[in-house]
Amino acid sequence: MPKSIHCCCLQSTHVIAVFTAIVLLTTSCSNTRNLVILNDVPDSARIALPYLEAPISTIQADDILEIKISGSNPETTNDFNTKGAGFAPMGSGGVTATSSPNYLVDREGNIEIYKIGKIKAAGLTLEQFKNNLVTLLEKELVAPSVVVRFTNLRFTVLGEVRTPSVYSTPNEKISILEALGYAGDLTIYAKRNAVRIIRDSSGHREIGNINLNQKSLFTSPFYYIKRNDVILVESDFSTKKQSENIARTASLIGILSSLITVIYLVLRK
Questions:
Q1: Are 227 and 63 in contact, with CB atoms under 8 Å apart?
Q2: Residue 6 needs a FRET pair 20 to 30 A away by CA distance; which of 78, 107, 241, 252 works?
Q3: Which of 92, 115, 150 is the last residue of a domain?
Q4: Is 230 inside any structural domain?
Q5: By three-state DSSP, how is residue 250 classified?
Q6: Residue-wise pLDDT tens digits, 65-114
Q7: Burial 52-84 (b: 16+ CB within 10 A, else e)
């Protein structure tokens, strides 16, 4: 085989290898920072952030409340905790019958409790509803005490996450980061600087944007998720296009490398 052809083949292979490395390194450097959440936070052992008060939620239709009633006579209070229609949230956001003292708020915003009847719940905070219920129970029990909590913080995560779905958790308060954790985190194609939260609270709808790349998300009114929120993670089409171009380039480079190798082996014989 002529020496010039041999050198030409080797040089071509080296050029392709160098070109591939440059493309991959350039792309990696340009995209790595965008993939990091809170990339504007400085390296520090401790960073002080402004105080953010958790939102006070009001009861809505279709909410599920855990209501625990107690009093001086356990035998009497036991009826209130066992003879009511109980419900408990499932992982999919549905409900199923259970013996626990959980109550579904009906479409009219009421809850029906043993011996008390229907009580207005929608539009009230948990504290307001509890106080109203204690007042009504004083006619039936001695020194009644009531504990009320939400059991169905239900939200939806859609878009560029690993497992988009509807989620339900017994926690009364979770953050946007925890909610995304339920969905298995963002994909590499997620637009981290424009995550939308669609909120529908008793017919009042609003859309908020959160930038996960900046620490300002900790002071956003949308940092804490509310019941029935829809989290929409948009696709970063520029990143997708760039990845597709890299894949095409890598494929072309692989074909050229194979072709040069074949030519080299044929000419060598």
A1: yes
A2: 252
A3: 150
A4: yes
A5: helix
A6: 999 999 888 878 888 888 765 554 444 444 344 446 889 999 999 999 98
A7: eeeeebbbbebbbbbbebbbeeeeebeebbeeb
